[in-house]
């Protein structure tokens, strides 16, 4: 004998949401993942404050808030990097005399 039995199933689906605007982010490949490098927020393409040019599968992105806060720090970091480059050049020039 075959008896018809009705059952209900609860299906739970995990979705990823942008931590800034709340829209759904499609979960695809690693190259589509956008997570702020500093605060770790999951970001949609509209909420990315800055994306660095990178090679490979992983993106280097910053949310707008972290990118704006970092403006004065990035300027100082750039100045110090230039000073380091100058010191290396001076060192090499003195060695080659």
Question: What does this protein structure show overall?
Answer:
The protein has a single domain (16-95), classed as Herpes Virus-1 (2-Layer Sandwich), CATH 3.30.40. Strand 3 (48-52) and strand 4 form a beta hairpin. The longest helix has 25 residues, at 71-95. The strands form 2 sheets. The protein has a two-stranded antiparallel ribbon with strand order 1-2. A two-stranded antiparallel ribbon has the order 3-4. The protein has 97 residues and is an alpha+beta fold. The radius of gyration is 24 Å and the shape is elongated. The chain has 2 helices and 4 strands; from the N terminus they run E-E-E-E-H-H. The model has no long low-confidence stretch (mean pLDDT 91). The termini are far apart.
Topology, pairings included?
Elements: E1 16-17, E2 24-25, E3 48-52, E4 60-63, H1 64-69, H2 71-95
Antiparallel strand pairs: 1-2, 3-4
């Amino acid at each position: 004998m075959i008896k018809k039995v009705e059952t209900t199933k609860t299906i739970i689906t995990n979705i990823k949401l942008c931590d800034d605007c709340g829209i759904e982010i499609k979960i695809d490949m690693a190259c589509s993942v956008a997570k702020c490098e500093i605060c770790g927020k999951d970001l949609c393409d509209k909420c990315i404050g800055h994306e660095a040019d990178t090679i490979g599968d992983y993106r280097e992105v910053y949310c707008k808030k972290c990118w704006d806060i970092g403006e004065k720090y990035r300027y100082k970091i750039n100045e110090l990097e230039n000073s380091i480059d100058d010191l290396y050049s001076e060192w090499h020039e003195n060695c080659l005399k």
